[in-house]
Batch of 3 targets.
Target 1
Amino acid sequence: MSTITRRGRLAFRAFDPLRDAELLHGWVTDPGASFRTMRNARLQDVERAYMAVAASEHRHAWLGLHDGLPAFLMETYDPRYTEPGGPYAPEPGDIGVRLLVAPPHASSYGFARAVVAAVLERLFADPGTARVVVDQDVQDTVAEALDESVGFALVREIRTAERRSLLSLCTHERYAAASRPRRAA
């Protein structure tokens, strides 16, 4: 499944830990990367972490392609088994997602929003998906604003061993409402 945007074609393919780890290592260790917990990771750490994802039945990683070239990473998880942190009661149909938009795409105006929209379109295409769950670092105000602009509603702050984050949820209805073109007054 691919999405055509004004920014080009966005598509997804399964992340291959052996083939893609070196590429991802460069992304997660970039000083501007939002995956702060992996900023000091070695290549072997990235390989090991994503081999665990590949072996899990509750987590999946996808390499996002922009016009056929790697541009972002999407991880999905079942929050019933991979809790985002703190006391969170997942409901049937919840799916968690984590995104990393690669440099230099991360600073390209509007690209991250196009990626989030493509991700939500993909996740909500599954009739079993009722809500999408994200947990953004409390310091990442850009991601928080982006999430809000596409329909995520803040639930509360949560704490994990690695960080403080904001737990937010988005329903298909909230996403559709946020995606409608706004009329000029």
Note: DSSP finds five helices and eight strands in the chain.
Target 2
Amino acid sequence: MGAYWPVQDVLAHLAGRWRVERTVRDLASGQDGHFSGTTVFSPLEDGGDGLLHHESGLFVWQGASRPAERTLWFLPGDRPGTSHVRFADGRPFHDLDLTTGHHVADHPCAADLYRGEFTALDQDRWRTVWRVGGPAKDLVLTTDYAREPGTSVPPL
């Protein structure tokens, strides 16, 4: 994939609006799905430190298209420039440190393990690849993010 693009402050870097394209591949069945939409990283409504991540778009699976969305919180991490990522209900999801431009995180979910690889490609593009394995799942989810020009949120 080439060199990584180091990110000094992940929250400041992510703030704004991103175009999202995701492929979902079920390795057990060979079926593919696709999500296309937008992710907005905006200041938290309560004025606290961190960002609200809201993703919305259209997911196509087995020929059926349906709306899909999710919300996460990106909160300041333990070290400058890093983040703790939480589900909308406050449960921990994973940490994120892109100071080298690359980060790997694990998230156990019941009997399945989610392993995420995060890569900053440049100032306006980044990618996540989640490998999900367990008794019920055998998936690879690859998401490409491209910053929408002129839509960034002012720095934190």
Note: The chain is about 5% helix and 60% strand.
Target 3
Amino acid sequence: MPAVNRLPSGRRAGALGTLALTGVLTGALLAGTPAAQAAPAAPSSGPAAASPTALPTPTGDGAKSICKRLPSTEGHLTNALNRLNGDATMAGSVARLQQRVANAKSAGHTEVETYLNGRLTARKALVGTLKSRQDDLKSVATWCAAHGKGAGK
């Protein structure tokens, strides 16, 4: 039976980032100790000393894979825009967040209102970005069809 990941991918990435940051901070703190300053740094060699894994230089623009993923990408954009443009009962909608801002204001929770207003600004900007991407994707679909790349899965 395969191992079950207990954290959602976002939390897993956050946990790994926290561990990495802790290691960096611990190393920086230890570097300030007299024992660490007295010890000479050993020259590093081998694979660990090499730069991070570098990806090869792309030889194309990825048109084939973009055309292949086109239907699912369009679906994701449509779903996201439907959610954002939903009414106040739709989780993740601009209207719902506006209602929460109004509720915080009427309750006198100015700090919460300020925080939610920042999120509201970002969410409204996201709507514009996604609409722009949706328009761009229509042009890509036309290009894919004209060049015989197909838009199948």
Note: The mean pLDDT is 79.
